[in-house]
Structures are given as structure tokens and as C-alpha cells.
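COMPLEX REQUEST
Ligand: flavin mononucleotide
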Amino acid sequence: MQRKTGSSDHITRAYLDSLLLEVRHLDSVMPDTGMDLFGCHFDTPVMTAALSHLHNTRENGMAEFARGAALANAVCFSGMGPEKELEGMIDTGAKVVKIIKTYQDRDSIYRKIRHAENYGALAVGMDIDHAFSHNGYDCIEGMEMRPLSTEELKDFVNSTKLPFVIKGVLSVQDALKCKEAGVKGIVVSHHNGRLQYALPPLMVLPEIMQAVGNSMEVFVDCSLESGIDVYKCLALGAKACCIGRPLMKKLGEKGAEGVREGIEAITKDLRYTMAMTCAKDLKSIDPTVMRMGSFTW
Ligand SMILES: Cc1cc2nc3c(=O)[nH]c(=O)nc-3n(C[C@H](O)[C@H](O)[C@H](O)COP(=O)(O)O)c2cc1C
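STATUS: Structure written out below.
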């Protein structure tokens, strides 16, 4: 990755690379990478990130992306996009977490939540970090955004039977507000650097874990590329991780099959790292294997 002053992607990568692992061999076994989430079983804690506009990468890109996740028996997040697109993703058999933007038109958010529930999404939620741009309120494809209040969030959460997931949490303050609102999962993320000098998600993850305990599932994304990266997130308390751009590249190269291969390769790397550190399953990953090396960016 090319260095750019203040680039949160670069800082996040440098932080991930500063975390080093002990090795533990005695009593190790072949690890199980399986994970239960929201009532379903998955083969891996490696999930696809909430991407969108993948028709620019490959024909029928969102559905192909979802099919790749389904082939790997992995959770598939979906970002913004029309209802038909979500239907195409769910039709592949993928278990989809639909992430909706904070549109100024709040009714459209309720409609999208209802649609996701009726069409059989695994969970639904919102990315709270796209309300502003340097020019004022953010506007995507002609749709204006507005920030979300905790009170509004409670209403959205209470409007659905689906588990509600908030993406874009990067502080204990927001994590606690999500907890108060009844959110069932958060993605600790800076959304590939929407703010320069944003904290690396793993720098704030331990504080968030301490604040929310096991009241919700905690996921991580941003600049994760390998099974070792995923392992580091799990060691600090995350349940699972989302991978975006690296899987997008695989989608471009080989479609759904590439996405499956990408997820499986990261999962194998995770399994190897678990085996080399005596973790028999995801819950057994021990945070004391990790040490901080030097961190500069
Ligand atoms: C092409 C593209 C489209 C994205 N669309 C969305 C979106 O609609 N909603 C969302 O919450 N995040 C969206 N994201 C952000 C990703 O979910 C993720 O947070 C980010 O890419 C960091 O993960 P990565 O470093 O693994 O790519 C998008 C990212 C990319 C690259």
C-alpha cells in the first residue's frame, strides 16, 4: 500500500502489522473454524464486507459476490443497492446482512428494512458513518443523507424482528449508544478511511469489548487481508471479520468462484495460525499470544 499522509488505511495496516504472535505447539489439534451467528452455522468467521456497485467490477457482481459467500458457507454483508439486487443476492442461498444508508428519506429506510425482513435476510442494519461529506451532508446517487440519533435508531431497531447491525462504530461512546438502542451487532470500522487519522479498529476494539461485554456481536473490518489479520481481530474479542477490497479483486478475476477461493484461502490461513498457537476453535483464541511490536506509520 502506498504511503499517504493521514491515510487511515495505511495507519490501520501499520497497526495490524505491529501485532506479533507467540507460538504454542504442545497439545495443539487441527482447529475448527466454524461459527454460529444469528441462529445459523457458518464454516468461517470470514465474512464479505458490505460492498455495493459491484456491477462495475463484474456483470451481476453483487449476486456473484453473494454466491461466492454461499459456496464458502460464509456470511455475506451487502451495502446500498436496490431491492431487486438484494433479492438476487438472497436467491443464491447466501445468508445476507443488509446494510442501509442513513437516507434523509427515513420512510425509505423503513421500507428497506421491511423488504429485507420479508425477503429472508439474515440481519439488517445501517452504516452510520456516511452522513457528511466535506461539502455538507453526503449525497449518493441523488439521495441525501442525514445523521442518525440514538432515539431514531431505537425506532428502526424496534421496527423489525431481524437482528439489527450498526456499521461504522469506532468509539466506546457509539458502541454504548448502540447497546442502549438494542442493537445486536456492530462493525468496528472507519469505512476505508472516511476520516483521516481515524483510529485503527483494533486499537479501540479492546475498550469496546470491555464496554459492551457479550450484549452484542462485535465484528471488525478495514484493511484485513489474511487469516492472521482475522486471528488478531478474534484474539482481541471480535466474533468475525468483514473483508472487502481483497475479495472484490477476486470477484473481478474469477467471479463467484474467486470469492469462494478468497474466503477459503483466508480461512485456511486462520486455521493454520490457530494450529500454531494452540487454539482448537474460535473461542479458544487466547489474547495473551499477542504482543505489540513497534508501531509507526
Ligand atoms: C466499492 C465499495 C463499495 C462500498 N459500499 C459500501 C456500502 O454501500 N455500504 C457500506 O456500509 N460500506 C460500503 N463500503 C465499505 C466496506 O464495507 C468496508 O467498510 C471497507 O471497504 C473497508 O474494508 P476493506 O478494507 O476490507 O475493503 C464499500 C467499499 C467499497 C470498496
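REMARKS: Residues 245-275 form the longest helix (31 residues). The chain has one domain: 8-284.
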